[in-house]
Write a structure and sequence with these properties.
single chain, mainly beta, eight-stranded mixed sheet
């Protein structure tokens, strides 16, 4: 990898080594390659000395202000690893030193110092150091926030100072002394430059491999990835010797440079460092820091009597004073008491005293018993502990606390303790360090208890999952655990059990891009193209992961390296329904999911106090509330149908059915309603003895009575509603036939078209008594004013097996359809009805004009309209008459079939008093003068052009008239039409109805 030819010592500047440009950019540095095996000499001002952590004794030197190159791509400071142990006089802030040594990557000094995107820090491994002077000041500072916008971006700012307000996305961490259970603050927490108020002060993890994690070579090119939140920076208030700052998520920190500072870096609050492979800001001990802002809101679950609650909590190495046979730590009595108190507070107040608590990382049964006693004393509960030793080398196990007052335990058993998996090297490894613990229990409820199967799990952690050497087996191990758990859960579901999985899956609610552990367990694994190691699921009955219903800004129960994440889960059957225990799947009864936040957001030093549960563990736990399903009561009826057969109208028949509470355990079923519906519901009535709750196997009776009101099939339905959970509604079909003892030979009479005012021919209804006894009649009546009875031989009774006759006629009083009913009603044997129909018809006649005028001897034609009314359609005769002498009126037709409005022309003629001899009609002599007069009037009115010629013509015509008058004499007609006013009457008749119309004509003489 490196050039093997050694070179002589070279004196170089800091920014020549710490550059992100050129052939060998950071983290490698040009001098890491081109001067391999050789030492270089660097001079700078000491601006900070690491007093704690992995690089204790490392100093930072900075380029003197006069030597800055002002290039953003180069840093003006660098770490000198472990210089304090080489020459303590060089490890003094403000000293100008010349250091000789080799340029190396930080992970060659501390093997674990490499994380983000394979970008370890760069610095010098010194062989000698000389102090040139003391009391020097370096004032360089940057304000470029891009230093925290990408992984490795802070390399080019190594050793440089900055000032900003930072917002905490994780609480201050601490180192733990387990024997005393005390935490010492590290003064370190993850933060961002920009506020995260919109996300509740947090940075959240997303699906896939993060930008600061490694993508294995075996991963598909389409594997899911996400940014990894590169804006995170670790604020370190103690490494340079300052006092620790303890902070809570949601708070901010602002620092200022202390007064009267004369040496070191005076223009910033801290130094940018990359020795650990990620961005750190090492706060100067001379900086004055102020914490402000709100603290993340804590949420808590609440117990109640109508729900059962299941919770889970990882207690993080919960040891007792005795310790265990291997791998555990015996803690002091005071420390143990304090942890028990804090755990009891967490279970009581934050988790809300769940009926079942699934716990992880507990030492043994005795330790869990102590915790049960502490909670019972604090909360007045009745928890009973259950724990089995597993395979964990640190004596950490999973266990249950079960409230015996609400839950009946049937069985607790550890499974898969001896199971193994095949490692990537084809070896055999223990599958479960902490084997699943299975609780089969019943939630107490009225009637019969509700059974559930709860599986407490704690999967192997993700540690080294992306490591090039160890990662493959970590992935293989986690995938094997997930598939094993999936098969285990499905076996319970196949047996009809409702299953809850509660514990620390060490997996997110989505795929991490390496192995989709949660997806394999709940039945929805990520596609093989999106994950490094794909494994199918055995969960054919899907599980619901309830943490996904938590609001996105509260969906976390641990914070790791500044990322808020979900590791603890509660899942439950969403497709398995056991009708003997409930009417729906377990997941459908969820009413609330509570994600408490009592410790993950708070500084780790809270472990030292016993007033709150904060600091107890890194985990917040999770609680799910299920509605207690009502006990599955059942009921039945003795028959699903009642057939009453044939029943005389006026009579009734009753039948009885039995309603029974068929529940096999102690329970009650109460009827809430009995109703009758259906087409002929009014023919049925019911009475019952079901007024109170029925105990198991108890019954009541319902009597249904059928009283037909009409002949023929009569149907209905009896519905019984109850609080039975299995069959809350039972239906009994009702059928019967109504039989009329009175019968008629017809159901209806139709009289057809009858002229208005006329009476139809009589039609007869024959009424028969089909019984062997006389039937007394209460009435014989007709509804409808157009119909009437003309004869009735029935009298007041009809003899046995005999008949009588009733004759009906139709006399329409109006046009159109007319209806009525003939009703024959008996005193005790029902009634019959015969429908009556007929149609009243008519027609009208009218002249188009009521009057006119004419000169005797002329004729005219007028139109008459004949109109049918009410559906009239029949043959009619048409005639016309007048009182005028010498005149006549003649219709164009004498008869026709009238079915629609018809126009009939009527011709009227008149006779003049005289006639011209030799001429017929109007004589020339007799009428010439008239013609002349008419022509004159016309021409004058038209104002004819060349009027003199016209007048000449008229004079000639007058002379002609005189001559002809002298030559021919007029004769008188024998029967002339005298001048006067006359009437002409049009008559139309169908033989029954006669309708007429009158026309008035004025006749004038010639």
């Amino acid at each position: 990898m490196f050039c093997l030819s050694a070179r002589a010592q070279t004196s170089v500047s800091i920014h020549s080594i710490m550059t992100t440009t050129g052939t060998y950019p950071l983290p490698d540095s040009p001098y890491l390659y081109s001067h391999y095996g050789s030492e270089v000499s660097v001079t700078g001002v000491v601006v900070g000395v690491m007093s704690s952590g992995d690089f204790t004794g490392t100093i930072y030197i900075s380029e003197p202000s006069g030597d800055w190159d002002s290039l953003q791509a180069t840093a003006e400071g660098m770490p000198i690893f472990a210089l304090q142990s080489l020459n303590s006089s060089c490890a003094v802030v403000g000293a100008s030193v010349t250091v000789v040594g080799k340029i190396v990557e930080a992970n060659s000094i501390v093997s674990t110092a490499i994380t983000a995107a394979n970008t370890p820090g760069t610095g010098m491994q010194p062989t000698s150091c000389t102090v040139n002077s003391t009391g020097n000041t370096m004032t360089q500072s940057i304000s470029n926030t891009s230093a925290f916008s990408s992984f490795g971006g802070a390399l080019e700012y190594t050793g440089m100072t900055t000032s900003a307000t930072f917002y905490a996305v994780s609480p201050t961490s601490a180192t733990l002394d387990e024997s005393s259970e005390t935490a010492t603050s590290t003064g370190q927490f993850w933060a961002t430059i920009s506020s995260n108020s919109s996300s509740n002060g947090h940075l959240f993890r997303s699906a896939g491999i993060a930008g600061d994690e490694y993508v294995p070579s075996s991963a598909p090119s389409t594997v899911a990835t996400w940014s990894g939140n590169p804006q995170r920076v670790l604020i370190d208030t103690t490494t340079f010797g300052g006092s620790p700052v303890n902070i809570t998520v949601g708070q901010s920190i602002s620092c200022t440079t202390g007064s009267n500072i004369k040496v070191g870096a005076t223009a910033g609050i801290g130094l940018i460092d990359y020795t650990l492979g990620y961005a750190r800001l090492l706060i100067f001990p001379t900086s004055v820091c102020t914490v402000s802002g709100s603290v993340a809101t804590s949420t808590s679950a609440a117990a109640d009597s109508t729900h059962f609650h299941v919770g889970t909590l990882d207690l993080d190495r919960f040891y007792s004073t005795t310790g265990a046979t291997s791998g555990s730590v015996a803690v002091s009595s005071d420390a143990y008491t304090r942890r028990l108190t804090k755990a009891a507070l967490a279970i009581t107040n934050s988790l809300g005293k769940p009926d079942i608590v699934s716990l992880q990382e507990v030492q043994d049964q005795a330790t869990l018993q102590d915790l049960a006693s502490a909670v019972n004393t604090l909360a007045s509960t009745s928890y009973v502990p259950y724990l089995e030793q597993g395979n964990d080398s640190n004596s950490l196990n999973v266990g249950f606390l079960v409230n015996s007052s609400t839950v009946k335990v049937d069985l607790v058993t550890q499974v898969e303790k001896s199971a193994t998996y095949t490692t990537t090297s084809s070896g055999s490894g223990t599958l479960w360090e902490r084997p699943p613990l299975v609780l089969k229990a019943e939630f107490v409820r009225t009637g019969i208890n509700y059974p559930v199967t709860v599986v407490d799990v704690h999967l192997t952690p993700r540690t080294n999952i992306g490591d090039s050497t160890l990662g493959a087996d970590v992935r293989q191990h986690r995938a094997a655990q997930a598939t094993d758990l999936s098969a285990l859960v499905q076996s319970y579901q196949t047996a009809g059990e409702n299953v809850i999985v509660a514990g620390n899956l060490n997996a997110f609610e989505f795929s991490d891009g390496y192995v989709d552990v949660t997806g394999i367990i709940d039945g929805s694994p990520a596609a093989s193209s999106a994950v490094t190691l794909y494994e199918p699921t055995s969960s054919t009955g899907a599980l619901t992961d309830f943490v996904t219903s938590v609001d996105s800004t509260s969906r976390y129960n641990i914070i790791e390296n500044g990322n808020a994440e979900v590791l603890e889960h509660i899942l439950a059957s969403s497709t398995v329904t056991n009708d003997s225990t409930a009417s729906a799947s377990l997941a459908s009864y969820v009413s609330a999911v509570t994600q408490p936040h009592f410790t993950a957001d708070f500084a780790a030093v809270n472990l030292n106090g016993s007033a709150t549960p904060a600091g107890l563990t890194l985990h917040d736990g999770l609680v799910v509330s299920f509605l207690i399903p009502p006990a599955p009561t059942t009921a039945s009826v003795s028959s699903s149908s009642l057939n009453f057969g044939s029943v005389d109208i006026g009579s009734s028949v009753s039948q009885t059915i039995t309603f029974t509470n068929t529940t096999s355990f102690t329970s009650t079923v109460t009827i809430s309603g009995i109703t009758i519906s259906g087409t002929n519901s009014s023919d049925y009535t019911e009475t019952n003895t079901c007024s109170s709750a029925l105990a198991s196997e108890a019954s009541c009776t319902i009597t249904v009575t059928f009283a037909p009101t009409a002949a023929g099939a009569r149907t209905g339905a009896l519905t019984i509603a109850s609080d039975s959970t299995s069959n809350p509604s039972l239906t009994v079909s009702l059928t019967g036939i109504g039989v009329s003892v009175l019968s008629s030979n017809v159901d209806s009479l139709s009289f057809g078209n009858i002229d208005l005012g006329a009476t139809s021919a009589a039609q007869t209804v024959t009424v028969s008594n089909g019984t062997t006894l006389p039937i007394a009649l209460s009435s014989i009546a007709i509804s409808g004013s157009d119909f009437s009875i003309t004869s009735n031989t029935c009298g007041t009774a009809i003899a046995a097996s005999s008949s009588c006759a009733i004759s009906v006629v139709f006399t329409p009083t109006a046009t159109g359809a007319r209806t009525g009913t003939l009703s024959v009603t008996s005193i005790s044997k029902g009634a019959l009805a015969v429908a009556l129909t007929g149609n009243g018809v008519d027609f009208s006649a009218a002249f188009s004009s009521s009057s006119g005028s004419i000169i005797a001897g002329f004729y005219e034609t007028v139109n008459a309209t004949l109109t049918p009314l009410g559906g009239f359609s029949s043959f009619v005769s048409v005639s016309c008459s007048t009182t005028a002498s010498g005149s006549a009126c003649t219709p164009s037709v004498s008869s026709l079939t009238l079915s629609s409005a018809t126009t009939v022309p009527i011709t009227i003629t008149t006779t003049s008093q005289k006639t011209v001899i030799g001429l017929s009609g109007v004589g020339i002599g007799g009428n010439m003068s008239f013609f002349v007069l008419i022509l004159s009037a016309f021409l004058l009115r038209r104002r004819v052009h060349n009027l003199p010629r016209v007048l000449t013509l008229l004079i000639a015509l007058g002379i002609m008239q005189a001559l002809t008058g002298c030559a021919n004499q007029s004769a008188a007609n024998a029967n002339p039409t005298q001048p006067g006013t006359y009437t002409y009457t049009l008559t139309v008749t169908d033989g029954v109805l006669t309708r007429s119309a009158v026309y008035t004509l004025t006749v004038t003489q010639q």
